[in-house]
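fyi for ur records
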Amino acid sequence: MIEFDSVSKTYRDGTTAVHDLSLVIPSNKITVIVGPSGCGKTTTLRMINRMLEPTKGEIRWDDRPLRTIRRTQLRREMGYVIQSGGLFPHRTIAENIQTVPHLLGWKKARSQERALELLEMVGLEPRLANRYPSQLSGGQQQRVGVARALAADPVVMLLDEPFSAVDPVVRADLHEQFLEIQRQVGKTIVLITHDIDEAIKLGDQIAIMRVGGVLAQVGSPQQLLEEPVDDFVAAFVGKDRGYRGLSFTSASGLLLGSVQLARDPASARRDAPVLVIDENAHPLGWADRNRPGKIQMLGTTFQPDSDTMRMALDSALNSPAGLAVAVEGNGRFAGVVTASEILDQVRHLKASVADAIAARAEADAAREEAEAARREAESVRAEASRIAADANAEAEEAGRIEAAIKAAEEKEAQARAAEEEAAAKEAASTPKPTVRADQPAEDWSWDAVEESGTHDR
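which gave:
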């Protein structure tokens, strides 16, 4: 996983190419960064392999800050593909593919074997290995560029508008080849393009950026088509986003109908559509009502189990009979469906999805309420525990006070007993005066005793 955390890039002239970008690029998926010129797409890509350094923020790769990884090591662990392939013109195709393995010190035999393996993977013949880039077409050069990026089996691949320099037919073929390669190798891929259609076709995740390097929205292709966050995103993905959104809805739920079939177009009725098939039940075309014995073009067919609603609707719209022809995996006729039936099914599915979203929202709300109740219960339990702890502490304190009082009372009693004992001893040790018989008791005094010089011994 590659993570941008509040990353900005400002050049010396004051131009801000990327502003406060926070983006997570998941592992083993294709993330496409798309946007108009000047939105910072390529700058973002080049910061991943440290061709450029961010002015602010941090980029992490599997929780490791990129700034802690040596640039040379980082670039050898990441494949890089640019426009037109970027091949070395003085090197053969095989030598171009072996560039990174050579830098890593691979043995020659291993590098050569890897080059031939990758040529086959990208759909090129081994005989092209000893040719030079100038001897290949643009599409072939682009395939070699992808092969070179894969040579050292990198975990991450960075592609900067790799398909922009080829014609639409070659580009469509390269797209299919690229997706097939990804199914085989499962790399973490970051691809830059200005073409939203290319982004929708290739991306597992799409990040749309505004001019000035501000992230407008990130999500799956279906999310961007169905739920653009603002007018900019809605305009960028296009006004036909509802139709293109059908590319993410399977045609497997369509109810197929029947149509009249014929082997010989000359024998076909002229008051209803007739589909002409061969001996293996493969559709050939529609019987021409205006020219008996002639066949009109079939249009496109679709396979319900593997194709989408968009392809089914396209088949119906392209059909001279207004009927989409469904075929099995082996090409045999399976049934037909009208455009209106397809749209009815789409509306039904959208209603079901809306109901599911509403139900999910209610479930999420219920879970949030339950979580809030749980947190409140935990808070109450914590408060009760605190009160109980305080009560226990108060009880312990009261016990200590009571024990202290009891101890003080015992000490006080001991002190009184000691005082009484001391008083008794003092009283016992004090001499008692002797009173003469002829002296009234009330007249005695110590003076009289002293004068008489008599006292008890």
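The two ends are 113 Å apart (CA to CA). thats all i got for now
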